[in-house]
Specification:
Strand content: under 5%
Number of domains: 2
Oligomer: single chain
Helix content: over 70%
Shape: globular
Radius of gyration: 17 Å
Number of strands: 0
Number of helices: 6
Distance between the termini: 37 Å
């Protein structure tokens, strides 16, 4: 199975997440809801590591890798905190498309930080994502 299969599964589960989170955040502080979700993700991901057996021991991971995975984790946490707050006060059908503007930010940052070359497809697709988010957010 190639990357497209896994990316589509990711998108599918992210879509389910938006609906389930919107239902779950009702009547609960959004930060508490984020903490509960994060705890579930933590237990689930460590369970996968233990079941599959790590290919590399924790001590063999470089400091650079630890740094960037830690920074990525912090960014994820901030994203989830903001996302749950937005879901608590907004409609899932409007919040989720705006949240997907992360795709556009990822494209821009990949070009700047990772020096990935962008083609016309990136600009057209990114522009369509922005247009779609605007249309859905203010529908």
């Amino acid at each position: 199975m190639n990357w497209i299969f896994w990316a589509l599964l990711s998108a599918f589960f992210a879509g389910i997440t938006a609906v389930l989170a919107k239902i779950g955040v009702k009547g609960v502080d959004s930060n508490l809801a984020t903490a509960i979700r994060t705890t579930v993700v933590l237990v689930f991901s460590w369970s996968l590591v233990w079941m599959m057996g790590p290919a590399v021991r924790l001590g063999e991971i470089s400091k650079r890798t630890w740094l960037f995975l830690t920074l990525s984790g912090l960014a994820t946490g901030l994203s989830w905190i903001c996302y749950f707050r937005a879901l608590q006060i907004g409609q899932a059908s409007r919040v989720a498309p705006v949240d997907k503007l992360s795709v556009v930010f990822a494209i821009v940052l990949a070009a700047i930080v990772l020096h990935e070359r962008l083609g016309w497809q990136h600009f057209l697709g990114g522009g369509l994502i922005v247009a779609g988010a605007i249309i859905l957010a203010w529908a």
